[in-house]
Write a structure and sequence with these properties.
Rossmann fold; Dihydrodipicolinate Reductase, domain 2; alpha/beta; six-stranded parallel beta sheet; globular; about 450 residues
């Protein structure tokens, strides 16, 4: 890669942060890009974290039109690096370097952008390390492990002026974009309430037991920003989601992120005034799951608007239909929207429009992926090139993510609390003690 092209990719997107960009600025950026780069606009990428999201990246990276070259596959587990190499060997010609340590990947000046699909506690620190190294970031949900990290990742984006797309891919679904625009234009009148939901049938998980880390796992690097502790089986292989707060963010960070983002987008609200939560562990009482597996949360906003969340991780009774989705109520009708499209109803409950999506995006299946993710990744690439604006810029993503953090904090403290709708800060002092987290010395992201 030439020095001019690399410097352009790193520096040319000044002001391109998504919702704030104007049409003239976007056109100018795209024009300048075309003049400087011509046809040689390849973006060199690395994937950090090769677990269940890996399959989602095969298509956007391998498609010829993306003009992307995969330079690194990075993971702390040897078997996952090898499996990822085998899967990509089927769809790309070049052979990416297999790497254990994200820091070595970020040292390579040829890397323009990363996909960060690590466990939750690595998301903000890894993204900040990447931006500091001059890389753009596609940041999977949750974009932060706690509210303080949401503030940090936005501060890093503003300082280093990188393209940072949050991986809530429904923001790139044509049907969702269409119906949200219609809702904002009054198709159901005054939209005052949204009910977001997620239902799954997750089973029992082992009771954690101290033992040596699995062969091939760099346990120290897996922990990364989290304070060190002994390995417990079976932490690394997805169950870190449910084994306490060191690594995971429970089902709110794991899945509610998506639907609450759609709900907030539809109602056009920012920070709530108050939150009430009911939560608990009600299934498989004696297994190793230490989080809630059931949660109902109610977020109260100004202008008499409300978002309700209903999450069932291990009771698969399908209350609303479809496993996951969002229902938006208005003064003149209602909308049901999910990854399969949307259904628009009038005030009497009559179906007015049924817009089925051609998307094959996964719903509640582990791993996910599909053409929504492809669109979302391509939008990321094209924004780096100055040809589009982000569908989910990080400054918007952190606001939606904060709803999940409020709910987790309320669940952990057993308290409802009020929120400053201007700053997003919690008034309750006990709750504010969970605003951030403790880091392993030397790992806390700092500007």
């Amino acid at each position: 890669m030439s020095t001019d092209r690399r410097n352009f990719l790193k520096k040319s997107i000044a002001g391109v942060t998504g919702i704030s960009i104007g049409g003239s600025a976007l056109a100018s950026s795209a024009k300048n890009y075309s003049r400087i780069l011509g046809a040689n606009d390849r973006i060199n990428v690395a994937i950090i974290g090769l677990g269940r999201r890996l399959g989602a990246y095969l298509e956007p990276i391998s498609r010829k039109e993306s003009n992307v070259e995969l330079l690194y596959l990075c993971d702390v587990m040897k078997s996952q690096r090898e499996e990822a190499a085998d899967r990509f060997a089927e769809v790309i010609k070049n052979k990416p370097v297999l790497e254990n340590d994200i820091r070595k990947v970020l040292e390579d000046s040829k890397v323009d952008a990363i996909f960060n699909a690590t466990p939750d506690h690595w998301h903000t620190p890894g993204a900040c390390m990447a931006m500091e190294a001059g890389k753009h970031v596609y940041l999977e949900k949750p974009c932060s492990h706690n509210p303080r990290e949401g503030e940090i990742v936005v501060a890093f984006q503003q300082k280093y002026n990188k393209v940072v797309q949050m991986g809530n891919q429904q923001r790139s679904a044509p049907e969702s974009i269409e119906i949200i625009k219609d809702i904002h234009n009054g198709v159901i009148g005054n939209a005052y309430k949204a009910v977001a939901f997620y239902t799954n049938g997750r089973g029992e998980v082992p009771v954690p037991k101290k033992q040596a880390p699995p062969e091939g796992l760099d346990w120290d690097l897996f922990q990364g920003p989290s304070p060190r502790k002994d390995y417990e089986d079976d932490t690394w292989n997805y169950n870190w989601h449910w084994y306490g707060w060191d690594f995971g963010t429970a089902e709110m960070g794991n899945n509610a992120t998506h639907e609450l983002d759609v709900a907030r987008w539809a109602l056009d609200v920012k920070y709530p005034l108050h939150i009430d939560v009911f939560s608990g562990k009600f299934q498989y009482i004696n297994d190793g799951w230490s989080m809630y597996d059931t949660m109902e949360a109610v977020f109260h906003f100004s202008n008499n608007r409300i978002i309700k969340w209903e999450g069932q991780s291990r009771n698969k009774y399908d209350t609303f239909g479809g496993g996951r989705g969002t229902i938006i109520y208005g003064s003149e009708g209602s909308v049901f929207v999910n990854r399969g499209g949307y259904r628009l109803y009038d005030i009497k409950g009559k179906l007015v429009k049924d817009s089925k999506s051609a998307s094959n995006e996964a719903g509640t299946a582990l791993g996910g992926g599909g053409d929504m993710t492809t669109r979302h990744a391509v939008n990321f690439f094209e924004t780096i090139r100055g040809k589009e604006k982000l569908n989910s810029p990080i400054e918007q993503g952190v606001v939606s993510q904060l709803l999940t953090h409020y709910a987790n904090i309320s669940s952990r403290t057993g308290k409802s609390f009020d929120i400053d709708e201007k700053s997003g800060r919690i008034f309750d002092r006990e709750a504010m003690k969970l605003w951030g987290r403790e880091y392993e010395p030397g790992w806390e992201p700092k500007l």
